[in-house]
Amino acid sequence: MTQMEEDKKMEANEQEPAGAGAAQEQTQEPGQLEQLQQRINQLEQQLAEEKNARLRALADLENFRRRARQEREELLKYEAEGLITALLPVIDNFERALAATGEEGQLRQGVEMIYRQLMEVLTRAGLIPMECQGQEFDPHLHQAVMQVPTEEQPENTIVDVYQKGYYLKDKVIRPAMVTVAVRN
């Protein structure tokens, strides 16, 4: 084919009525549009599901980080608990030794000095002795070992302390062993 023949053929195609090609497109278009719309809806749903999954994963990660931080803070806060709990009988024995020694003397002064030094170290670590005498009995803080009928004290009041209780910061590490007043 020569160049002229090709040009004439192109002109003939260009002069074809616009409706003929458009009609052909319209017959194919509704089916294709419906398929495309379904595909778009499917992709939008898939995108929404993946977005929700990503948000859940981020929330899970943030919750994990928060729990890990809280556990780490808790461990640091009470890191000395084992050591302090092991030293509580030593404190009890120091207090018994002080009660058994006379009012004055070098032995008593030496024991008092060591006891004060030990208590200062433990206080800095967060040990707090419970003040129970005359307080109302609380089963979360106290262990009742005996009940004493009395009219002198209100009922459910701590009359005597057999063994001191202790807190480590805000946590009870040993409840106090106490005698509780009851009414006759």
From TrEMBL:
InterPro entries, alphabetized: GrpE, GrpE_CC, GrpE_head
Basic and acidic residues bias (residue ranges): 1-12
Keywords: Chaperone, Coiled coil, Cytoplasm, Stress response
A cellular component annotation (GO) from this entry: cytoplasm
A GO BP entry: protein folding
Subcellular localization, as worded in the UniProt entry: Cytoplasm
Pfam families for the chain: GrpE
Region span, Disordered: 1-33
Skewed-composition ranges (Low complexity): 15-33
Gene Ontology MF term list: adenyl-nucleotide exchange factor activity; protein homodimerization activity; protein-folding chaperone binding; unfolded protein binding
Subunit and partners: Homodimer.
Protein name in UniProt: Protein GrpE
Source species taxonomy: Bacteria, Bacillati, Bacillota, Clostridia, Eubacteriales
